Amino acid sequence: MARALPRPSVSGLILLLVVVAIFPYLYTWPFFSAFLNPFRTFQATRFGLWLIILLGLNLLTGYSGQISLGHAALVAVGAYVAAVLMNQGFLGQDVPVWAAVLAAGLFTGALGFLLGAPALRLSGPYLAIATLAMVIALPQVLKLDSVSLGGHEIHVHMARWTGGVQGLLLDRPKAPESLKDLVNERQWLYYEVMVPAVIMTAMAWNLTRSRIGRAFIALRDTEVAAEHMGVNLALYKMTAFALSGLFAGVGGGLFAYNEAFISPDSFETIKSITMVVAVVLGGLASITGTVFGALFMAFQNEIVDSLSGLIRHIPSLSALQGYIPTTQSDFEKLRGAFYSIPLMLFIIFAPGGVAGLIRRVGYSAPTWWQGWRSRVAGWASAVKPARQRAEPDADAGVEGRQDPEEKTQD
Amino acid sequence: MSQFIQTVATGLSMGSVYAVIALAIVLIYRSTGVVNFAQGEMAMFSTFIAWSMIVYFGAWSLPLNLNYWLPFFLAMLVAAFIGAAVERVILRPVEEAPIINSVIVTLGLFTLFNTVAIWRYGGIAKPFPSPSFFHGSALRAGPIVISRLNIGVFCMSVLIMLILYLFLNYTKLGLAMRAAAENRMACRMVGIPASRMLTLGWALSAAVGAVAGMLVAPIIFLSASMMFATLIFAFAAAVLGGLQSLPGAIVGGLLLGIIQNMAGTYIGSEIDITSAFVVIVLVLLVRPTGLLGRRVVRKV
């Protein structure tokens, strides 16, 4: 069985929250200015966006076991709903950003609930293809204006709302007038994304420990057993889709607000697939893992660059020029390989993702720590012979407790 | 009416390519339970290998159109080798892991083959030759016009399906492969090397994929991105027919080709992909395991 991740202590969580809260100002401080700059704030904003989106996907795929390759379609729906509300208002009224994003989340959540109904009958690869179909068909639907059916023109006017191929252009987000001296545009954006991200992370965290989360895990592991335990399969599966839609909608709305531009090409099939990759890399069914997945999404370009840079600096390789990639342009063309080879190796050697790795290390650390401590205690006892007799017993106690646990892990 | 028949005929020829790739996907899924997203890219890569061999052999004057057929079969061999190597080296370690892990590994393979092909052969689309009996003027039957290329592709696909059918049903090796897909443990007990059969399944599937690649390349030109759209449709075809069933892949592929062409003709080309997928989702709702798939009963 999977072991629980080492939980951060309360003080650790508070420290993390404080760091998140002051992050956009850190680069103005003397020590942090060495490695932080305003661009990092921008990247952190993207991290927040991805965190929200991936949390939804992990609730669906990791916790409830429903493989979805079409998450980008839900994100797109959220983005378009929010963008249309922000651009055109609702019933002649201007819609504030928070309301637009919330509405996008609720709308997409409702849509997800409805999409969950057909998904009830599908599983595994069939569900994967059906959800993939959503994201492939999406650009055509967004660009749609009229359909001729049996000689009749049916006007759908989808493109009037979505802007068709050109997409939608929004106002660039601005910090409010009253706070102008305190925050600049980028910092304001950071808070507007990070506050929902933190709230939704806490929400997901609580959710997975609630009745609903347990039901998700139960129906993922064995549907029949879950049903016998009183889990309403249809309701909970649809709830999983609805929750994932809610997260995707909020993430998509914030995405539209953050980029200030969306078009059908913002939500390609590849991006949808990359989301699943990120979730698995981080660790399925783990909130901490999702954080790592979001880090991967936000920093994947940097990661690939540094990997290809590392290999470029191995001098002996230049002797093989022509047979293997050595020049700058070779590395530019082979970006994908520097992405896919580590990816495959990682999945092969760490099937549980980053969260799985932490779980393993987190487990072995105490043993190492215990050994080190007993050695220190041994030295101490050499200095103070009076305590010598107590030590071996304490060691045996520790080992006695460790052994059966090691067996259960196998 | 003639427009209808014309649409069906064109749909059949495109559908037969989907059917061949879908066959390759089903071959792998049946034996290893892996949905191979890299199938199309492996086919594309082997087609590039065939292309470079055709360029190489082009300098010689070989009889019997061997300038084309020798690279054709050599590329199939190379593809089979690549397929076997991929199974042995990359997929064997994730065999026991959850399905989604093997999906991601094949996605990684997808990117790998794609970028290596762009690096090695460049991003410009290249013309790819077709066998000489595909050339010549289009065939006419009344008002219906069908190009020889389309007929050739259709015939070749039918031939492959026939060979596969005979191989799997009437040879000992084919029987062993089917048995290994069905029940690995029982296979080992009667002395069939089950894991070697899995490798063979991948090799066979890669070779079939290579043929599909060489069949579409004359139609849509040879480039690193040529198989992407085909792959998506082949997937849809495999799912439509039922991922477990080889005849299902063929039925699914042909149906999908016809549906896509029908939608393009009668509704509008800007909605052809969408309508094809709408049909698939509808079919799946009625039959969740595809048209010819069987329902797998699982115990708790």
Lay out the secondary structure.
The complex is a heterodimer of chains A (410) and B (300).
Chain A: H1 10-26, H2 38-63, H3 71-88, H4 97-119, H5 124-142, E1 146-149, E2 152-155, H6 158-162, E3 168-169, H7 185-208, H8 211-221, H9 223-228, H10 233-259, E4 261-262, H11 269-282, H12 287-312, H13 328-333, H14 335-349, H15 353-383, H16 390-409
Antiparallel strand pairs in A: 1-2, 3-4
Helix pairs in contact in A: 1-7, 2-7, 2-10, 2-11, 2-12, 3-4, 3-5, 3-10, 4-10, 7-10, 8-10, 11-12, 11-15, 12-14, 12-15, 15-16
Chain B: H1 2-32, H2 39-57, H3 66-91, H4 99-121, E1 139-141, E2 144-146, H5 148-170, H6 172-182, H7 184-189, H8 194-220, H9 227-241, H10 246-266, H11 272-286
Antiparallel strand pairs in B: 1-2
Helix pairs in contact in B: 1-5, 1-8, 1-9, 1-10, 2-3, 2-4, 2-8, 2-9, 3-8, 5-6, 5-8, 6-8, 9-10, 9-11, 10-11
Q: Structural class of the helix and strand makeup of chain A? A: mainly alpha
Question: Could you list the spans of chain B in which at least 5 consecutive residues all have pLDDT below 50?
Answer: none
Q: Measure the end-to-end span of chain A.
A: 9 Å
Shape of chain A: globular
| SSE order of chain A, one letter for each helix or strand | HHHHHEEHEHHHHEHHHHHH
| Terminus-to-terminus distance of chain B | 53 Å
Helix segment tally of chain A: 16
Number of strands of chain B: 2
Outline of chain B: globular
Describe the overall structure:
- The complex is a heterodimer of chains A (410) and B (300).
- Chain A contains 16 helices and four strands.
- Chain A has 410 residues and is mainly alpha-helical.
- Among the domains of chain A are: 225 residues, no CATH class; 47 residues.
- Chain A has a two-stranded antiparallel sheet.
- In chain A, a hairpin with a 2-residue loop joins β1 and β2.
- The C terminus of chain A is likely disordered.
- Chain B has one domain.
- Chain B is built from eleven helices and two strands, in the order ααααββααααααα.
- A two-stranded antiparallel sheet of chain B has the order 1-2.
- In chain B, α1 runs antiparallel to α10, α2 crosses α9 and α9 packs across α10.
- Chain B is globular.
- The termini of chain B are far apart.
- The mean pLDDT of chain B is 83.
- At the A-B interface, α5, β1, α11 and α14 of A face α4, α9 and α11 of B.
